[in-house]
Amino acid sequence: MLSRKPEAVSYIMQPDLFGNEDNRVEYFFVISPPPAVVNAVRRFKARLHERIGLDAINMRSMAHISLFKFLKNDNDSLIISKAAAALKHKTIFDIRLRGADSFLHKDRAGTLYIKIAQPDPVNIVTRLLCTAFSLAYRPSIPHLTIARNVPLPSFVKIDPADFDYHYDFICRHITLLKWNGEKYDVIHEAPLNDTAPA
């Protein structure tokens, strides 16, 4: 069943007021799931590839929950310190993966994904980070992508029910990625607060 849903990834471009646009790089905040989920998504990709053929980008992409991408001057230490400050009071939280679904991109391609029950904590983290970097928060539906931008002729052959998956895990950190021109590198994992309230 096809449904129309907004993309979870916001790509936020902010003008550089100081004329340093040549020094800007792409940073990307994501939630990295545990190995069990990574392996399950890898198996789903392999199954999809056998059925419809997936492109190299989809096959290489590691399982993750996207928060947002943004362009900033190349300054890892500043980005890391701002992220740490933004998240220092955010406690760890549960993520409950509950079944699969899909949505279309302007009737040309589609995305197959795993749904997140009770996604409010994910949105709260996104809002905190956007505020820290003076970026506009764009409401979205967090999800864990299995395959994205699948051409429509192949996409209509996918039944999300074939990819039903349920798994719970605790989100203990937010991963910061940086585009190196060919792929994303993990440059930091910002820990969430694991201290129980007094």
Overall residue-averaged pLDDT value? 90
Helix content: 25-40%
Our Rg estimate from Cα atoms comes to 17 Å
Please mark out the parts with pLDDT under 50 across 5 or more consecutive residues, or reply none: 1-8, 10-19
Structural class, from secondary structure content? Answer: alpha+beta
Count structural domains.
Answer: 1
User: Any idea what the shape is?
Assistant: globular
Distance between the termini: 47 Å
Enumerate the strands of the largest sheet in spatial order, edge to edge or round the barrel. Answer: 1-3-2-8-9
Order of helices and strands: EEHHEHEEHEHEEE
CATH topology: Cyclic Phosphodiesterase, Chain: A
The top level CATH class name: Alpha Beta
Protein name: 2'-5' RNA ligase family protein
InterPro entries: Cyclic_Pdiesterase
Organism: Chitinophaga lutea
GO molecular function: ligase activity
Map the helices and strands.
Layout: E1 10-12, E2 24-31, H1 35-52, H2 56-60, E3 65-73, H3 76-87, E4 93-105, E5 109-117, H4 120-132, E6 143-151, H5 152-155, E7 166-171, E8 173-179, E9 184-191
Parallel strand pairs: 1-3
Antiparallel strand pairs: 2-3, 2-8, 4-5, 4-7, 5-6, 8-9
Helix pairs in contact: 3-4
In short:
Keywords: Ligase. The protein is built from five helices and nine strands, in the order E-E-H-H-E-H-E-E-H-E-H-E-E-E. The chain has 198 residues and is α+β, with helices and mostly antiparallel strands.
